[in-house]
Amino acid sequence: MPCGHAHHQKGYAELNFAAQPKWIKSITSGRLDQFSGGYFSSINLSSAQVKHRTDDPKNVKLEVWSAPGRTKPEFAEAIKQEFRPAKKGESFGPSLTLNVPKAWANEERIQFEFDPGCEAMIWTKDGLPVQGITGGNDGDRRVDYILDAKARSSEHLFYIESSCNGMFGINGINPPDDNRSYGLASADIVVPNMSAVALLRDFQTLKEIRTHITAEVHLSHHAQWVANEIMNVWQKGGGASGLLGNEELLKLVEECRKVGEEIFGQGWREQKEKVYEGKEVQVWGIGHCHIDTAWLWPYSVTQQKVARSWSTQVDLMERYPEYRFVASSAQQYKWLEELYPPLFEKVKAKIKSGQFHTIGGQWLESDVNMPSGEALCRQFLYGQRYFESRFGIRSVTSWLPDSFGYTGSLPQILRLSGMKYFFTQKLSWNNINRFPHSTFNWVGIDGSQVLVHMTPVDTYTAQATVEDVRKGITGHKNLEVTNQSLLVFGNGDGGGGPLEAMVENLRRIRAVANKYREIPIVKMGNTVEEFFETVEAQTNEGKNLPNWHGEMYFEFHRGTYTSHGSIKRGNRKSEILLHDIEYVATLASLFGTKGAYTYPKDKIDPLWEDVLLNQFHDVLPGSAIGMVYDDAERIYAKVAKNGSQLLDEAVQALFKSSAPISPTAPFTHASTSKGKIIAINTLGKPRREVVEINVSGKGADVLKSQAVQISKSGEKGYVLVDVTDGVVGEVKGMFADLTPASAHKTPEGDYVLQNSNVKMTFSKGRIVSLYDIALKRELIPEGLTGGLIYFNDQPGYWDAWDVEVHHLEAPHPVAFEEFAITENGPIRAQLQTRVKIGKSTIDMSISLDATPGSLKADARSAFRFDARVDWHQRHEILKFEIPLDIHSPNANFEMQFGYVGRPTHRNTTWDIAKFEVPGHKWADLSEFGYGVALLTESKYGYSADGQYMRISFLRGSTSPDAEQDQGEHTFSWAVYPHVGSLGDADIPGVAREFNYPLHLRYIPDSSSLSSMTALTREVPFSVEGAPGVIIDTVKRGEDDKFDSHHTGATTIVVRLYEAYGGHATAKLRISSRVPVSKASITNILEDELTPLELSRAPSAGQGEDTILELPFRGFQIVTVKLTIDAGLLSRPSSESG
Ligand SMILES: [Zn+2]
């Protein structure tokens, strides 16, 4: 007979009189929230986290010195200052002496908890940064500095450098608050109860499983049941009583943790990092720390953030052998190398041992919409060379998780920079369409491809939660061919990186996956490259992956092509100046007086590094605080000053005693009637232009005598420059084929600019007619007008970043007023006019020249607009618009090394999204036989909207910089009508001429030209047989040595690209004056890849030119390295040349 005492029985009982309800899941779920923190924190598991804590002055001696103003003294300087005693609640910059109580000596962990409310860094007394601190109570809080054995036993002195800024600057994305201060909340020695800490982590992982695995699966519900059971054990064992001794508490915690093994598996704790053993993997964890090189803080603060973040990561690596961390940006490594050498050595050691991974191969994570093609090449050339020189590593993975859209030129640039993989996630921020792929081949405009992973986790600052790991699979859009994804975790933007808790959580999640199939298998311990290699292998070398062709347009942050107009201008002007310096300096190093000139690579490199720095993805886009722009403007001013000097020195090396001629400044150089104006053309192709010069100075008579047209005031002169068969052009009189330009006012009060091929009419302040005279064709549609226009510009949260689609719904066309005819031919006609908008004034000249836009037979002339703007508008965007009677479904916009078509219609949501688009020097709307191009010289924002083409000029957002775009601006643009397609009309070439000025020089004696026939009669490098192939860059080879007694090779690098989008076979002609002994095709990194056959052809001068035959596909970039026989160079040998 059964006895009736069921609990004494083994096996399934026969009788059961207990109530035993099925639990109410939602209530139990709520109960789990009471086990840590919150209302019950004095009796729940939180109460057991710390064993001991003290801030007794006997144990913690705190002294402080505050650096004056915004200075950032170096460590050695700072510790020499006089420190005064301090205490909690005060402000900072302390030195600390700790005396750990003797009784605590054997504790598992002793840490110093320091919470200044802001960011800080702990330094050893010898000047080694060892740990970053993030104070405050946000998710990125990190206030514990673990004391090592030495620090426990004796008196331990160290320093803390506190910076009065938070992780996200001083006031989030609002302008900085100068009156913000921070208080010292904690400076305590703490002995944590590590078992209780671990239990809390167990418990939190269980809760995450229950919260985030929402499918009705056993694991999820069972995790809740186990977590609840842990609470029961805790409460039954007296955990909430507050009466347990240390031993008893430990025992109870251990009992609770045992319950957790139901989910984590038996023995998982002893496995430690070996929990990851086993081949199968789905989600690859990699620690990361996105440090914006400037954003809500200036560059100088970023330098500290790098040291703080990376020292913390080195510490984490030492405690977790499986831990891997990846960091991009050569610039950040270089700062560390220069400013924190001991820490740099520690990082270097971790790179060598394989836990710290470099990535990206780039100078920094730049914007990739706006930098020129050559600047992007330099981003990778300088980046890869830095990583290679310091660590012997080249990256194969491009890393741009946070840039605002990706040009279709990038795949080719990456392949040519030694990379084949690409990581991002930013397109998950699209505000209209969802990007359809996670893992795919990205095919650029030339056909080059890279393997892309856009993490399905949709972030580069994952917190390594169950939800993050799960999203790696549930968010993956290409599970049909691959089940691999990258989990990039760690606090970021302001730095910081992963916390210990994240690394611990991943171990737990993996332990669960080792027991249950309902959670993806996460792995730590590999490189990003190993992840990509696995994907490559799994997808039949990418052949099973879908392709995405062309640009990856970002459907967000469209204001960043326009915000901070002066920064955009600084970028474009600097890129062009550097081009010109390299071109002329290369020639000077070949043809200058022997021994008198050295190619100034050591001065050019720092200027490039400056330009690359300002291309950071929150600087050039205009989305940083005002302080960042103060720095950026200073940097551009330095580039302009030092660059102009370098250019002048190079020109002087070729034309001794020559002097620059300015369009604006009076010419004061002593001159004689024998003097002559010459023009240096850095584009290597013939051009003919009207150039404005100032003829007012005391030495200007000789200039005046060579001008074809002098303004009424007598201050301005216009010269006709013709550079047809050399780098150096001369000033000419009128040509027979010129079409004299004129301006007049009609009896109706309209103003007209015209020459014999085109005419523009202004009526009531708007452009009412653009007329092609030869074709008798009106280009402005009936009833529409062009001119300046502004729109209310009130986007959502991201003020500086976004111009939103609805801005187009409230247009304000404005009229040109106060017209005056300021020039009236024969070679330049010009109207002066003014526009007023609110408190802003726009003074503008509109010009038409007698010269056509190019030397092509049927070329028309461009209408040029030069604006000087005093801008005081806020939340308004200024544009130029022109409606055109040209019908095409697409308009084209120049990008790096090519162009991209965007729709003029709005058929689909993908078309609607492209209401504002990035472009470089030109945008073009063409139909069969005819088109109109817009040319710019410092603008990047455009739109094609039905019949309207627009350029965006200025905005006035107030966050994060309250003063964005306020003040003076100058910029120019042109309207260029043309016969035929953009290729027929050579729009890429015309836009280059609009951007690259001829450099006018005065030479005192034209006989000095005769010694320079290599430049006056010949172009050293030119292209034949392929009108679409452009010589973009000419420079000296990166590996040439330029010290005074070098014996190495003399090499020249020529970078060309096909600009029209079609196959071509180009002949690169190198003048006989440049004795080429060897030539090869290289990549961007200047590795010699394919030798080229040298063939010779009769020269226009003496000897034989070298001809290199180069096949191109559309938009292909080809880099050629020429080795020069320096002994055969004929140069002036004496100072008299
Ligand atoms: Zn960023």
UniProtKB/TrEMBL annotation:
<dbReference type="InterPro" id="IPR027291">
    <property type="entry name" value="Glyco_hydro_38_N_sf"/>
</dbReference>
<dbReference type="GO" id="GO:0000329">
    <property type="term" value="C:fungal-type vacuole membrane"/>
</dbReference>
<keyword id="KW-0479">Metal-binding</keyword>
<dbReference type="InterPro" id="IPR011330">
    <property type="entry name" value="Glyco_hydro/deAcase_b/a-brl"/>
</dbReference>
<dbReference type="InterPro" id="IPR011013">
    <property type="entry name" value="Gal_mutarotase_sf_dom"/>
</dbReference>
<dbReference type="InterPro" id="IPR000602">
    <property type="entry name" value="Glyco_hydro_38_N"/>
</dbReference>
<dbReference type="Pfam" id="PF09261">
    <property type="entry name" value="Alpha-mann_mid"/>
</dbReference>
<dbReference type="Pfam" id="PF22907">
    <property type="entry name" value="Ams1-like_1st"/>
</dbReference>
<protein>
    <recommendedName>
        <fullName>Alpha-mannosidase</fullName>
        <ecNumber>3.2.1.24</ecNumber>
    </recommendedName>
</protein>
<dbReference type="GO" id="GO:0046872">
    <property type="term" value="F:metal ion binding"/>
</dbReference>
<dbReference type="GO" id="GO:0004559">
    <property type="term" value="F:alpha-mannosidase activity"/>
</dbReference>
<feature type="domain" description="Glycoside hydrolase family 38 central">
    <location>
        <begin position="555"/>
        <end position="636"/>
    </location>
</feature>
<dbReference type="Pfam" id="PF01074">
    <property type="entry name" value="Glyco_hydro_38N"/>
</dbReference>
<dbReference type="GO" id="GO:0009313">
    <property type="term" value="P:oligosaccharide catabolic process"/>
</dbReference>
<comment type="similarity">
    <text>Belongs to the glycosyl hydrolase 38 family.</text>
</comment>
<dbReference type="InterPro" id="IPR037094">
    <property type="entry name" value="Glyco_hydro_38_cen_sf"/>
</dbReference>
<dbReference type="InterPro" id="IPR011682">
    <property type="entry name" value="Glyco_hydro_38_C"/>
</dbReference>
<dbReference type="Pfam" id="PF17677">
    <property type="entry name" value="Glyco_hydro38C2"/>
</dbReference>
<dbReference type="Pfam" id="PF07748">
    <property type="entry name" value="Glyco_hydro_38C"/>
</dbReference>
<dbReference type="InterPro" id="IPR041147">
    <property type="entry name" value="GH38_C"/>
</dbReference>
<dbReference type="GO" id="GO:0006013">
    <property type="term" value="P:mannose metabolic process"/>
</dbReference>
<dbReference type="InterPro" id="IPR015341">
    <property type="entry name" value="Glyco_hydro_38_cen"/>
</dbReference>
<keyword id="KW-0326">Glycosidase</keyword>
<comment type="function">
    <text>Degrades free oligosaccharides in the vacuole.</text>
</comment>
<dbReference type="GO" id="GO:0030246">
    <property type="term" value="F:carbohydrate binding"/>
</dbReference>
<dbReference type="InterPro" id="IPR028995">
    <property type="entry name" value="Glyco_hydro_57/38_cen_sf"/>
</dbReference>
<keyword id="KW-0378">Hydrolase</keyword>
<dbReference type="InterPro" id="IPR054723">
    <property type="entry name" value="Ams1-like_N"/>
</dbReference>
